[in-house]
User: Which sequence fits this backbone?
C-alpha cells in the first residue's frame, strides 16, 4: 500500500490540472471501469457470441431424434431459435405436428436439459408453410385431451401463422 500512488477525486484532479495549466479531457459524468485481463475479456466475448462453440441450435439439431423420437424426427427438424427464445420447428406431416404439439411441454423440458439450451421457452410448429398452395392438409387428433373447439383453434392459429387460408372439409 505504501508504494501505490494516492488516488484523488475527479474534482481534486480537475483543480490541480487547472492550476498547472493541463486540460482535463475526461467528460465530467464518465466513470472509470476497472481494468480487465485481456484473456478473460476475450473468453467472455467468445462465450457470448458462441464463437468456436456449438450453438444452442446445433446442439438441438444433433439431439433431435432423442428429443422427439426417431419416427417424429424423420418428419420434422428444428430450424432456428427466435429472439423470444422460441424454437421454430418445420413439420412435414400433420400427424407428427399433432404429436409434437401434444408433447411440446415435455420436449421443451428435454431441450432445456441440453447444454446451452436452458433459455428455450416454447416450440413454434409450422406445418402449413410446407404445404404447396392449393394443397390439402389432412389432420386429426386421436387424443381425448383436446376438444373439437380447441383443435379448430389450433388449426386456425397455424393457418394464420403460415398466412394461409384454411377451409375445413369434413
Assistant:
Amino acid at each position: 500500500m505504501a508504494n501505490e500512488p494516492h488516488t484523488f477525486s475527479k474534482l481534486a484532479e480537475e483543480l490541480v490540472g487547472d492550476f498547472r495549466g493541463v486540460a482535463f479531457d475526461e467528460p465530467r459524468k464518465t466513470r472509470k471501469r476497472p481494468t480487465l485481463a485481456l484473456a478473460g475479456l476475450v473468453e467472455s466475448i467468445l462465450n457470448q457470441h458462441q464463437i468456436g462453440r456449438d450453438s444452442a441450435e446445433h446442439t438441438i439439431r444433433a439431439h433431435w431424434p432423442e428429443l422427439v423420437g426417431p419416427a417424429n424426427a424423420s418428419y420434422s427438424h428444428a430450424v432456428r431459435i427466435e429472439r423470444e427464445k422460441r424454437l421454430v420447428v418445420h413439420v412435414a406431416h400433420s400427424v407428427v405436428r399433432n404429436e409434437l404439439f401434444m408433447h411440446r411441454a415435455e420436449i421443451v423440458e428435454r431441450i432445456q436439459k441440453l447444454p446451452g439450451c436452458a433459455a428455450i421457452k416454447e416450440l413454434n410448429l409450422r406445418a402449413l408453410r410446407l404445404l404447396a398452395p392449393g394443397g390439402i392438409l389432412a389432420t386429426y387428433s386421436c387424443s381425448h385431451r383436446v376438444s373439437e373447439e380447441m383443435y379448430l383453434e389450433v388449426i386456425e392459429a397455424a393457418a394464420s401463422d403460415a398466412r394461409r387460408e384454411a377451409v375445413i372439409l369434413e
